[in-house]
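Weekly structure sync, notes
Attendees: PL (lead), two postdocs, one rotation student
Agenda item 3: pending single-chain targets
PL asked that the sequence for the first pending target be pasted directly into the notes so everyone works from the same version. It is reproduced below exactly as submitted, 290 residues in total.
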Amino acid sequence: MVKSKRTKAGDLVIVLVCILLIMVCLLPMLNVLARSLSSTEAIIRNEVLLWPKGLNIEAYRFVLTDSKYTWSLAWTAILTVICVFVSMTMTILCAYPLIYRDLKGRRFFNTMILFTMYFSAGTIPHYLLYKDLGLLNHPLVLIIPNSLSVFYMIIMRTFFYSIPDSLRESAEIDGAGPVRILFSIYLPLSKPVLATLSLFYAVGRWNGFSDALMYMNNRHYHPIQLLLYNILNAVTSIEIQTQEGFASAPGLSDTIQAATVMFATVPILLVYPWLQKYFISGATLGALKD
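Predicted structure, written out during the meeting:
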């Protein structure tokens, strides 16, 4: 295929834009990695940019041998797996019945679910509700409140709409019930959107810390991102610095900050390659309807 000069110029612009976006995303990570592997003296002198100065792995040794960090990472991984399972279960069970046009009150349910997407009671009513339910300082407060995203449910429902009704009707003629149809037809055909939404839920839970910050005082159940939040605030807060057990030296503190950022970021990045083949199709198929 012969491309015109205008097409070649357009392709070049797209490539340059992609390279620029890659650099915007990659350079900060390289800087954090370099700081985590650099000596405290080099960090204090602001000599570290994209390459480590005075190779030093003390920060990683400190993080990996401290039970506070390893348990926080393990707890966050466990919490993420549980939240993804609960969230995907609720998303599927909410989206699937709404595709049946003969469902009584279907329009009402759709309206009420969509209403919650735009209007919320606010943080204080949520706090009072969780307090009355006995969820404060309980691990369930990190699982139940955000277990369903209306936006993701709409994507799932729209994807279910794209599956031909003839498949469901033929299964009903053969005597299959709604549950059997869900597990035999809809879920096997929905692997791309299931993988994509699972990834979205996992990233959201892994990076979440505000709910633990507001509703969880038990430090044993603090996720890794809240621990990282406390580390980044330790520079200006002596109280937090003492609680988290950071060294008082500024250079070492900065090195530990950078090492903890890498410690908290790398695990979730490793998930992307496993789901990449589903990601593009899953993110777009649910947005279209024949």
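Discussion points:
- The CA atoms of residues 34 and 82 lie 34 Å apart.
- The mean pLDDT is 82.
Action: rotation student to compare against the earlier draft before next sync.
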